[in-house]
Amino acid sequence: MAERKKLGISTGTAEAPAALKKKGRGWEISEKRLDALHDQAREMRRFSSEAHKALAERFAGANLGPYTFKRHVVVGSAIVDFNCHRLGMAIAIDEEGENEALSRRRDKSLEAVGIRVMRIKAKDILENMDDVLARITAGMRMRIADKEQARREHQRQGASRGRGYRNDNA
User: Fold this and answer.
1) Phi, psi of 70, rounded to the nearest 5 degrees
2) Which residue of 18, 91, 102, 118 has the smallest Cβ count within 10 Å?
3) pLDDT of 95-154, one tens digit each?
4) Is 145 left (phi over 0), alpha (psi -120 to 50) or beta?
């Protein structure tokens, strides 16, 4: 029989801060769950829908500069249809019959860690690819602008604390 853990009473001595958990590449996910997610993502890549294949083909032929979108990627405890790690942007393709509540919850958890999710209907991809690509491009531009703004604010905060690169005594 396994031993049960008991709650202890703190004696008031200062302890070292808790170490970061190394589970699931920084996320609080067990290795078993992470392996299952990767297997599921591999199967999704192997048996993709027509909308996924069409969008992946366009991304493969597009010149997006330093930004790349990878298909069916595990991000945390979710599998996103397309992910651009550098931008912190995910694209979710809405298929017929998907659970909307589950999708909203997944989007919320991804946005909590700084990943912006763009939802696109599969029907739109198959019927009007040019408009979809224009929406994705606009979303990428907004995300790049957001990242630039955050970088500028971070630099301003560093300069106001006296941590800037400029040396006034030289």
Assistant:
1) -105, 145
2) 18
3) 877 788 888 888 888 888 889 999 999 999 999 999 999 999 999 999 999 989 988 988
4) alpha
Region at 168 (left for phi over 0; alpha for psi -120 to 50; beta for the rest): alpha
| Residue 65, phi-psi category: left (phi > 0), alpha (psi -120 to 50), beta (remainder) | left
pTM for this model (two decimals): 0.72
Q: Which residue has the tokens 């990242």?
A: 147
**Selecting from 3.40.50.150, 3.30.70.260, 3.40.960.10, 3.50.50.60, what CATH number does the domain 27-160 have?**
3.40.960.10
- Strands 89-94 and 78-84, by their bridges, are antiparallel
Q: Is the pLDDT of residue 167 over 60?
A: no
The structural domains of the chain, with segments of one domain joined by +, span 27-160
